Amino acid sequence: MLAFVLTLVLLLLVVIVLAYAERKVAAFMQDRLGPTEAGPYGSLQPALDVLKLLQKEDIVPAAADKALFKLAPILIFAAVFAGFAVIPFTPATVPAGIGIGVFYLLAIISLDVIGLLMAGWGSNNKYAMLGAMRSVAQIVSYEIPAGLAILSVVMICQSLDFQEISYQQGALMNQFPGMEYDMNWLFGIRELGINTTTIGGITTWNIFRAPILLVAFVIYFIASLAESNRAPFDIPEAESELVAGFHVEYSGFRFAVLFLAEYSMMVLVSLVAVVLFLGSWNTPLPNIGPVSLAYWTSGTVGEVSGILWGAFWLISKTFVLLFVQLQLRWTYPRLRVDQLMHLCWKVLTPVALGVVLIAGIWRLLMI
Amino acid sequence: MENKTIKHTSGFWYVVKSLMSGLRLTWQHFWRATNRRTPEYVSDENYFKQADGLVTLKYPYEALPVPDNGRYRLHNEIDDCIVCDLCAKICPVNCITIESVKATEEIGVTSDGTKKRLYAPVFDIDMAKCCYCGLCTTVCPTDCLTMTPVYDFAEVDIKNMIYHFTDLTPEQAEEKKQLLAKQQEEMAAAKAAALAARKQQG
C-alpha cells in the first residue's frame, strides 16, 4: 500500500514537471516564451490546468455506450500505472519485486489497447472510432519490435527480473544474491580479457556490455514512441485530421485521467528504456584505478545514500530520454499510416529479429 | 525509349543525416532561448539584426514603440482650447460634439497667447466613432487637440468610449449660461433704453 501511494505521488510529480517541460521546450524550440504568468516562469501552469479540468462538467454523450465510456479512462490509467509496480527505483526499492517483471510489464501494458478501444468505440463518434482503430493498430504492431528488442536484453542478461538486470549493469553487481561470482567483460567479450566488474559506470551499461543492444535500444525507443502515441507517430490523435483521436468526447476529470495516462506511458517507456539499456539506477561514472567514482556516486545499498543516488541517476536518465521525446515531437512531421506500418513491419521487425540472433551469439561470447 | 526510375537521394545514412540535421535545428533554437528580441520600432537600426532569440512580446508589460506621426487616441488640452468648433466641423464622422457659451468677459489666454472668449460646457469625442484621420488636429488653431501614442483603450461598456474634455461642472455651466443671459438682458435693456431716448429726442 505504501509503495502504491509513493509511486503514485512520484508519478504525479514527474507528470506535472513533464507537462510543464513539454510547453516550455515546445515554446523555446519555436522561439516563443511559453507559460509566463502563473507562478515564477509559469511553473504553476500544469497544476492550474489540472484544477481547471477538475472543475469542468463531466459530459457523457447521449448515444455513447455509457458503461464502457466511463470505465475506459480508469482502465487505461490502471494498465499503465500497474506497469510501474515492477520498476526498480533504487538498488533497494522496487514496489513489487517479482521474478518475471519484464514479462508482466509487456503483458499489463498490452491491456492499455483494450481501454483505448473501449474509449474510442464507446464514444460513438467517428473521429474517436478512427483514432482508436489507428491507435490499436499502431500499438499492437509496434509491440513486436519493442518486444524483440526487450527479448534481446533478456537473452543477454538471462533474467526477467528488472532488479537483477539493473544490478548486472554496474559496479554493485556482486552484491545481488545469486550473482556474487559473476563478472562483466568489456563489450561483453571474455576473450578481450578486460574485466569491468569493479570498474562499473558506463562500461557496464547494457548498451556497452553488449554493443548490439545499442541497435536494440534505438529500435525500442522508436517503438516506444509509437506505443505512447507520441509524435512523429501520433496519427491516432492527429489534431489536424481527427481533432483529438480516441479521447475527443472526454471532458473534465475523465479527460484529466486520459491525459495523465498518456504522460505516464511516456514516463514508463522511458523508465523501461533506462532500466534495460542505460544502466538503470547505476551511475554513469566508472571507477578509474584509485579514483573510485562509481562507488562514490552509488552510495551504500539499503541505506539512505544508496536510495538517493539510485533515484537521482534513474530519474535524471529518464528525464534525458523524455527530453529527447519532446524534441522529436517538435522536430519531425507526422508519419502517414502506410509509412508507419512500413517502418514497423518492413524495417524495425526484421532488424529486431537480426538483433535477437546476434544477441544470442553475443551471449555465448560473454561466458 | 527506356523507362528510367527517378533517382532520389536515399539510403540509410542519408536518412540518418537528415534526421540529425532536424534535431540539430531544434536544439539550436532551444539553446538560444536565453536571448530575446528587444522591443524596437522598425526604423531602429538593430531591428533587422536580431536573427535569433525568442520573438514573443509580453504585451501588457512590453510593447513596440509607436511612430511619432502615428494616429491613435485624441486628447484635447481644454486650457488651450478656444472652442472655435473647427474640429467638429471638419470631422468626417461627426464624432466631436461641442456646445459653447459666450463668456461675459475675457476668460484668459491660451499658452500661445490667443484670447479665450468661449466656455465649452460640452466637449465630447466619441472614440468609438472616430476614424483616426487626424483632420481635427490639422485644423486646430491653437494645437490643443492632439493624437497621443495610446492605442490600447478598449472598454467593456461602449459609453465609456465617449471622452469628456470639458472643465466645467454642470452647475458651473448653468451659472455661466445665466450670467450670459443676464448680461444679454442688461444689454438688451440698455439698448432699448438708448433707443427710447433717441426716439424722444427725434
UniProtKB/TrEMBL annotation, chain A:
EC numbers on record = 7.1.1.-
Record's Gene Ontology CC terms? plasma membrane
Entries under InterPro entries matching the protein: NADH_UbQ_OxRdtase_su1/FPO, NADH_UbQ_OxRdtase_su1_CS
Name where it's found: Cell membrane; Membrane
Reactions this protein catalyses: a quinone + NADH + 5 H(+)(in) = a quinol + NAD(+) + 4 H(+)(out)
Membrane-topology descriptor: Multi-pass membrane protein
Q: Where are the transmembrane segments?
A: 71-90, 102-122, 142-162, 208-226, 255-278, 306-326, 347-365
> What are the GO BP annotations of this UniProt entry?
aerobic respiration
Q: Which UniProt keywords apply?
A: Cell membrane, Membrane, NAD, Quinone, Translocase, Transmembrane, Transmembrane helix, Ubiquinone
Give one GO term, molecular function aspect: NADH dehydrogenase activity
Q: How does it assemble?
A: NDH-1 is composed of 14 different subunits. Subunits NuoA, H, J, K, L, M, N constitute the membrane sector of the complex.
Q: Which family does it belong to?
A: Belongs to the complex I subunit 1 family.
What the protein does?
NDH-1 shuttles electrons from NADH, via FMN and iron-sulfur (Fe-S) centers, to quinones in the respiratory chain. The immediate electron acceptor for the enzyme in this species is believed to be ubiquinone. Couples the redox reaction to proton translocation (for every two electrons transferred, four hydrogen ions are translocated across the cytoplasmic membrane), and thus conserves the redox energy in a proton gradient. This subunit may bind ubiquinone.
Q: What is this protein called?
A: NADH-quinone oxidoreductase subunit H
- In its UniProt entry, the species of origin is given as Pontibacter cellulosilyticus
TrEMBL record, chain B:
Q: Which Gene3D superfamilies match?
A: 3.30.70.3270
Identify one Gene Ontology CC term for this UniProt entry.
membrane
Q: Which residues cross the membrane?
A: none
According to the UniProt entry, its GO molecular function terms are:
4 iron, 4 sulfur cluster binding; metal ion binding; oxidoreductase activity, acting on NAD(P)H; quinone binding
Domain 4Fe-4S ferredoxin-type per the UniProt entry, residue ranges: 70-101, 121-150
- Annotated coiled-coil segments of the chain: 173-200
Q: What InterPro entries does the record tag this protein with? A: 4Fe4S_Fe-S-bd, 4Fe4S_Fe_S_CS, NADH_quinone_OxRdtase_chainI
Q: What is this protein called?
A: NADH-quinone oxidoreductase subunit I
What's the source species' lineage? Bacteria, Pseudomonadati, Bacteroidota, Cytophagia, Cytophagales
Q: Which PROSITE patterns does the entry link to? A: 4FE4S_FER_1, 4FE4S_FER_2
- Highest taxon above the source species: Bacteria
User: To which species is this protein native?
Assistant: Pontibacter cellulosilyticus
Give the keywords, sorted. Answer: 4Fe-4S, Cell membrane, Coiled coil, Iron, Iron-sulfur, Membrane, Metal-binding, NAD, Quinone, Repeat, Translocase, Ubiquinone
